[in-house]
Amino acid sequence: MIAMIGSIIVLASVAIGFLMAGGNLLLLWHPSEIVVIIGAALGAFITSHPLKVVKASFANAIGLFKPPAYTRDSYVDLLKLVFDLLVKARKEGLLAIESDIESPEKSELFSRYPSIVADHHMLEFITDCLRLMVGGNLDPNELESLLDYELETHHKETLEPAHAVQKVADALPGFGIVAAVLGIINTMSAIEGSSNAEIGMKVGAALTGTFLGILVAYGFVGPIAAAMEGRAHEEGKAFEVVKMALVASVRGYPPQVAVEFARKLLFADVRPTFGDLEAHLKSKSKAAAE
Questions:
Q1: Where would a tag sit more exposed on the chain, N or C end, judged by fewer CB atoms within 10 A?
Q2: What global pTM score does this model have?
Q3: In the predicted model, what is the mean pLDDT of residues 246-264?
């Protein structure tokens, strides 16, 4: 929603400022310039990136108009899930959670957290990490190093769409110049027999191409790329939280301390307080005991 508000402010500011200067918005409406700029930018975007990045870019851009995947409540659920898994493994042994991680969709423990089960990437990350703990007998440093490599790969992949869209933003002013040059060529070819007013209109239409290229680049596509990058960093934090809790557990810390280590990684706006999280964990433990 905030992305839509920002885009509206950009568009309204430019339009109102132009009107205040005595302009006419119809003078900016030149479909041929729009076709050249947007069409060329889209074609270059498709040419320079694999299909998966193209699809992810459109999906992520649309996703900016939706709430973030992980809110404060989502992180509480994630920490509670990790806590439940670690408590079960500590009380009954690591082999006790083997059935949970092999079929999480059928697991009673995972079923308490449907939003996390619905997140395929997060579910796969949690179960893969736990499989390493159950069967790998890894040293904590080895486990942490391995998970760091996996997270690095994941972050790189999730940032690819944002970087791809930023390249489009960088290219759009150039395509605006292309549209402007085509307009000047059209103007030069029509000088003979044209009045000064007609030539002025054609030159104005050509300059609109430069204007549109710069406006779309810095007013819309560039900010969308930055917002996509920020959203990717925010959502990547959830994976770091899981990694921290599991590594802390392998190092020998009790579940509640391991989860506290993970809580410390969260950004302030989504991080539950120590007391709040402790209350959630105690209520969960009490409910399980009953």
A1: C
A2: 0.83
A3: 91
